[in-house]
Amino acid sequence: MAEVRTRFAPSPTGALHVGGAHTALFAWLFARHQGGKFVLRIEDTDEVRSTEESLGAIYDGLNWIGIDWDEGPDLGGPYGPYIQSERLDTYNEYVDQLLGSGRAYPCYCTPEELEERQEVMRKRGLPPRYDGRCRDLSEEERRRLEAEGRKPCIRFRIREGGTTVVNDIIRGQVGFDNALMGDFVIRKTSGYPTYHMAVVVDDHLMQISHVIRAEEHLSNTPRHLQLMDALGFEPPQFAHLPIILGPDRTKLSKRHGAVNLMDYKQQGFLPEAMRNFLALIGWSTGSEQEILDLDELVEKFRLEEVSKSPGIFDLEKATWLNGEYLKRADAEYVTEMVEPVLRQAGLIEADLSPERREWLVKVVDLMKERTRLLTDFVSWARYFFTDEYPYDERARKKWLRREEVPDRLDALAERLETLEAWNVDSIEAAVRGLADELEVSAAKVIHPCRSAVTGQTIGPSLFHLMELLPQETVVGRLRRTAELSRAGELEPTDGEG
RNA sequence: GCCCUCAUGGUCUAGUGGUCAGGAUACCGGGUUCUCAGCCCGGGGGCCGGGGUUCGACUCCCCGUGGGGGUACCA
Q1: Which residues 194 to 253 of A reach strand B, CB within 7 A?
Q2: What is the ipTM for the molecules in this complex?
Q3: What residue numbers bound the domain in which A365 lies?
Q4: Per-residue CA distances from A220 to A182, A216, A251, A409 (Å)
Q5: How many domains does chain A have?
């Protein structure tokens, strides 16, 4: 059996979209699972919308989630170039072949004329497809039209009768009535091929064995099949993937929030979590396992198991998954990932000393159990990095405005200030000692203390967290909070009691 | 309009001509004598509707309905 070769063929009209990443991932997983090759091809035949910058953005997105390619514009390969705008001569050869065999013909209709006629057809309740006006023009008529200054595009002649059947790995056999297809353009007036022409030629020339793409292309496939047939190409296998929808069940778009893959990096997602999440939209192992690392994904992926129904991009679930990855990852790795986030928030300096860096790993280790996004470190772990943290509502309501609290905080500050050793055990002993002396439960000291030192009512073990803060910082915060409390500055701000 | 396609709790999904329709997430409740957005335990909630086939249908067929895609000199 021939080598498995799949490809991802984005058009460079913007950054890598979540849907594009999903398609790329599936094609890549299949190739890797089969031990085949994965090709990146850029389909920039839309001269108007294609941009240079998007190319870089596509590379960045793919790199981020760990998709690599064996052949592509940057890498080259045996079937290059891998950018369609650099392959115009190739497409023209095949267009000429079709022209020669009579399966294609020049069409002189202008876009305005086309639109007008389609409008009429629509009004009559007819399908608004190309009416075939230029199908059988005589030489003389063509000359006359060209004398008018018209520049033709080239159309492909659809087979008159019968059905074109698409054999799809995911969807089975899908039949399309040829009579319902209009002759479509294969070369634009500008000389550029259309998508239909370019994919067919490139997939053939690049020896693509499996065309794995989003479902939106399923209805175009019979056109491609007819082109392949007319050109004498052996059709590849097809697999049309379910598309990704927004929470309102319409196609995922900007209205739904972030659609660019890299926006999720910005939001604090780990690439492996995003990859895992994307892999689980429209596919599952059939087992109950949901957390799969790269190797497991590659090992277990089966195209036959891909679902036919569209999936919704559920940010909640993605966030949960990210939290699981954070929890399981080792602190050193998470630290690496979180550093730029903290730096961007201005919470750590640009160059961390080895000691400071070691300390940061400990902070991360303490926090990662309960964070879901890297950006949670900026909000929930803020107090590790600065004295400028807010006292949240619950802390104000439950503890900080209580009458007895300021004195308790001062008393605790005094005890902690004189501690010889600053570690979990000594801190815990001091805190519990105070509680005993006051004849109150430890909680009555612990909670106000947490509220004072972190501004929050939740977080990791208080003693462990205090250990990672300098002794004088803790003491200072206790005294500052006591003072603010006495001054009535720590009443709830939402006006509620 | 026409063509194609999809349909299991809110969401991601497993699954079968006879099942207590399974898991995860989200939600709710309880526990965790330092908190919870963490952890543990528990709970509610589902086979789109109508016909048929069948002893029996969530499962097979047909028709609706709803979603998506195509019908472009966009890809």
Answers
A1: 194-196, 215-220, 242-243, 245, 247, 249-251
A2: 0.92
A3: 271-383
A4: 12, 8, 18, 71
A5: 3
